[in-house]
Amino acid sequence: MIPKSLGASSSASGVAGIRRLIARHKTLDWLFGLLGTLALLLATLVFAALFGQMLINGAPQLSWEFFTSFPSRRAASAGILSAWVGTILVMLVTAVVAVPLGIGAGIYLEEYARKNLLTDIIEINVTNLAGVPSIIYGLLALGLFVYQFGLGQSIAAAGLTLALLILPVVIVATREAIRTIPQNIREGAYACGSSKWQVVSHHIIPYSLPGIMTGVIIGLARAIGETAPIITIGALTFIAFLPPSPFSNAEQLISFEWLLAPFTVMPIQMFNWISRPEEAFQANAAAAGLVLLLMTLSMNALAIWIRYHFRKKIKW
Amino acid sequence: MNTETFPTAKAGAELKAQAKALSFHYGDFQALKNIDFPVERNQVTALIGPSGCGKSTFLRCFNRMHDLYPNMRYEGEILLYPDGVNIVDRHVDPIEVRMRISMVFQKPNPFPKSIYENVAYGLRVRGVRNRSLIDEKVEEALRAAALWGEVRDRLDDLAFNLSGGQQQRLCIARALATDPEILLFDEPTSALDPIATAKIEELVSELKEKVTILIVTHNMQQAARVSAYTAFMYIGELIEFDDTKRIFTNPSSKLTEEYITGRFG
Amino acid sequence: MMSSILPLKHPPATLAATPGTLPQGWSAARLRRRLAERAIETLLLLAALVSVFTTAAIVAILVWESVVFFRTVPLLDFLTDTQWTPLFDDAHFGILALLSGTLTTTIVALLVAVPLGTILAIYLSEFAPFRVREVAKPFLELLGGIPTIVYGYFALLFVTPVLQKIYPELPGFNMLSAGLVMGIMIIPYVSSLSEDAMRAVPMHMREASYAMGATRLQTAVFVVTPAALSGLASSYILGISRAVGETMVVAIAAGMQPNFSFDPREPAATITAYIVQVALGDLPHGSIGYQTIFAAGLTLLLITLVFNIVGHFLRKRFREAY
Fold first, then answer.
1. ipTM associated with this complex
2. What pLDDT does C34 receive?
3. What distance in Å separates the CA atoms of residue A91 and residue A85, rounded to the nearest whole number?
4. Domains (range + CATH), chain B
């Protein structure tokens, strides 16, 4: 049967019918748009609740003393001095280990690796490690760093653990950044007589640096908030002293004693306070959480900004 | 053009390079078949042919670009004069070859660095540190690439801010800064508008005073305008090599004739 | 007359050789450069191999300690017993008691994350105006960057009290609150991967649909979503893998008491929460209690491994499709 006009076959009322149909479809369209907006709104509300609740409970605790005091049995005088110092030192170890290893591995996989079994194994490993739960890294560290290497519950053990944890993040970011560099840039450099390493060091690394930085910052922000692996290696939760200063030793300019010192970090301190039954400590937990949240959010924001900023600047 | 002074037989002509029985393989695929081909000194030689005929592949043998990719094999030789070294020999370092033979690519590919640094790059790779020498070479190369006047006041600008034609001339300057013996052009104007194309063509004709030029082009008029010699390639083979004039007026091969009269391509 | 035309300031050694002869062997300069390049390549390879060593070390340590564990505890008991009381006199080692907690919290989390994540992905990919997307995407990324301990705090001290207002009998530790918050936590993962998959659907497929008179919703539902299906599935799988391995939210909000139950209103320990509980205590290195966490960890690794592999192949499929 050949319809007389479009749509008329199914709807007796012709054009008016089509219009009604379209109107109904458009209503559905509009409703889904509303649904999406609501979902977005819900996410915003949850974030507002999370942030607001911490702000209300924690903000009164935030004072200069909170940052300069050690944890204490009395909630009112307890602070996060050992926690933020510990976090910075652990992050230092993590960055020093994970950044060169991650960038090096990323460069190897993108620029050097031949298509062979070894490369496949490495690639599968990186993908797989990115999906391994963080607490498993804690178990690895407990067995390997704490007992086998005899590092104990130290800053070095924690830093190494978190470095392995964020290694896939750095590798993936490095690879993705390198992949955006067009092949004709490499050819141009080779045609000028560059060696492979010259191409990598003069071109590949500088041009992919914004992308790499984004990955490094996101990785470190993740490491700062990681709690489970640090608990798993058995890090103490009550530390009322600072690790030895890197600059304390008069004879050597820099001492590495702090690497083997016991420590606490921000999320561990927060966890410790959450676990206390007394309500006064919950306020401390909120304050510590607020500081932690601001640290990670500002790092993530910085990473996002770098990415958007440089994406606009360099157009291949 | 003074092409008439050099007869086809090339008797007495001074060669800059010469391919002898050159074959090239990607894996199992033979992309170039037994090519014999002379490159005359301080002349422009053009390579034409339908796409996929191997002209770019052939050009890229001259600075060993293929070495960047796996599973390839050269057979035969390309001799570079005056020393007569076979530049596709396994024992010859491709980096040394590229230091003597520069290349300009199909799409302008300046580095995301300043104009100055782009031109200075080849010198830096060669370990030149003398700032005044680099300054001098950069200016000389930019003048030779007919770009100096347009960029002299903004050498520190990012090269990406230049127009497509300017970028391509910058790439030519980059290649010239290290005084190459041969300059390879791989369809240098295919990404450019007609005015920019005309400028590049003019430049190519001027540059032959300084440097031997080998140019791949998909544009037959371009070959006719800029080159003294033209080679026609088809499916990996060199079908005909001759004086540009003769190729376009009186080709000896039927295939060449069909191609230049536009019956295929 | 041929003149020497080597214009380089530093003429390369090999090619400056006598005209007409092939360079014999490698020049010293070339050899030096070769060695340096080789050394760099080797260093980079070693960096890349760290990931292989890490995997090998994880497997070795978990298997090593678990082997000792399974010498004491029969595998059958481990897999079928429904009690997990390794530190009691009457010790039971039934991983099901922990798996039930992991499974229940994961299901609750997925019930939140999958619908919301998918709606957000469709909305952001097909509906949202450019400006909304430009703000919403980084915002969601930021949500994904919040430390899990903060989400744990939020679950225990905000979500649970709110739920208790609706349902007063709810205990202070419960799987419902932990699961809900975990769901919120993994929304960004699900939505961003799903959106990537939808964005990868070529524009001409949408145009074909619009050309037939379809609306956005129809295009999204009938064309884009089916085309991106394997990508969506892989994002859900990733979400599952995250939820299964998540530690702090459940350890804080669902309690650490093993409880063979699938009722989300009850408190229960997950595999991860149990590991935390043991690590917080003072178990001597080498005791059976110490080994239990490695056996539990091995179980967890195997579960996430299965999901990761499935997710990997699904992802590969949608990447290959276009």
1. 0.87
2. 86
3. 10
4. 13-260 (3.40.50.300)
